[in-house]
């Protein structure tokens, strides 16, 4: 049986945090180690350009994500690891796909509207075009599965629509990609008490490279209450802390704290201290592995170069097939 292909990527906006790790990278690892799948993982530097960024530090940001990928366990012997802009076929294919998508469809996407509210001064064509480029990223490799969070579902719907329209109009055979999920990967809460963990919200996240002191400091700022009540909060700072307890200390420990909340009460200094230790214990092996790659830049360069060649080979085939079907060659 032929392997199913998977494509996923993370924008180059700096080092990855535990939300990226639990919400996306662990899903990537699960697929990488499954022999049923052929996995392509990129750093989405072109997508980074859709919101304000620093051109002087972009290359460094790309490198940080690559190092975090490798430290977390993405293996160039098992997965194709590459940088999006180093495979230019993505952009050309995105333009071809844009011929079957209306401006109105893009403007009505909730993700587009949210970004415009967040960055009203950066309402660019690139931002509007983001889901089309994402569709090209995925369909270039005819990927069946995409390990992303639930917030990306509107973009996957666009990818499915584009695949269907291209297949119907030109007799192509693009798959309609589905979202791949693993337990605990749906939504990683912000330390601020609302929303998800995000690199664009200072104080909401813990980086994979943070030391124990930094983790303790980040958790210390998480909002709490008196530690006692008739009912365990379903949302807000306490609920978010308890979810992290479940992820890093286990569901049994989470249940213990929930019972304490409606009983004798929780001492948040103890909870946050225990949680900080557990988070650091999981991150420490990643940090040690990261240092190996940090100290061998030529190895990282070689991994990215080989990844771009492997990805480019597939991308060139898909682009040629599409151009031929559209009458361009």
TrEMBL record:
Record GO cellular component, one term: cytosol
UniProtKB keywords: Aminoacyl-tRNA synthetase, ATP-binding, Ligase, Nucleotide-binding, Protein biosynthesis
GO terms, molecular function: ATP binding; tryptophan-tRNA ligase activity
A biological process term (GO) from this entry: tryptophanyl-tRNA aminoacylation
This protein's name: Tryptophan--tRNA ligase
Lineage top rank: taxon: Bacteria
Keyword Transferase: no
E.C. numbers: 6.1.1.2
Record's keyword annotation contains Chaperone: no
Family statement: Belongs to the class-I aminoacyl-tRNA synthetase family.
Pfam families assigned to the protein according to its UniProt record, in alphabetical order: tRNA-synt_1b
NCBIfam families xrefs: trpS (TIGR00233)
EC class of the enzyme, as a word: ligase
Coiled-coil parts of chain: none
InterPro entries: aa-tRNA-synth_Ic (IPR002305), Rossmann-like_a/b/a_fold (IPR014729), Trp-tRNA-ligase (IPR002306), Trp-tRNA_synthetase (IPR050203)
